[in-house]
Amino acid sequence: MSIEGTLITDFLVEKLHVSLLILDVIFTIAMGLLFYFWYKKEYTLSIHSINNDDREIFYWLIVLTTFALGIGIGDTISEHLNFGYLNSFILFGSIFILSGILYYYKIINGVLAFWIAFVVTRPIGASLGDLFIQPHANGGLGISVAVINIVFFVVIIAAVIYLTIDSVKNRNKENLVEI
Known about the structure:
- This protein is mainly α.
- The protein contains 6 helices and no strands.
- It is 80% helix and 0% strand.
- The longest helix has 34 residues, at 145-178.
- The termini are far apart.
């Protein structure tokens, strides 16, 4: 989905010359309409209750829309508005953290907190990715895409190995307690 969202956004901007601002408005409206029709039909937006075909379809359409929107918003803020990659990363990261704080203090519910966090992770990723790979002249760190991919691959593999080992240890502890 991430690649597809990026391809959709890049195709519309680079090949069809659609303005990032117009694209952001279109995808924001599309996402809003998808949420509206999903809620109107199913009376929930919770991912914990995706248990029928309609909810599944709405979910994946929103996921695709948020990926395309996130790339567009990230590029609009960091590049088009010249906010910069690091500042954009901090802005979107702050929104992510704020949604967690608002949920923690029961100001917003879990469903809203989830969707805010979910939507805002797209421009976080776009801003961070561009910060790493864009040349210094464009406000980035100029790190090779290959290096970034290798580092993230190693981190992901290490996390999966750690979590797998931890899960096995916890299961073994639970089995010992039951005996």
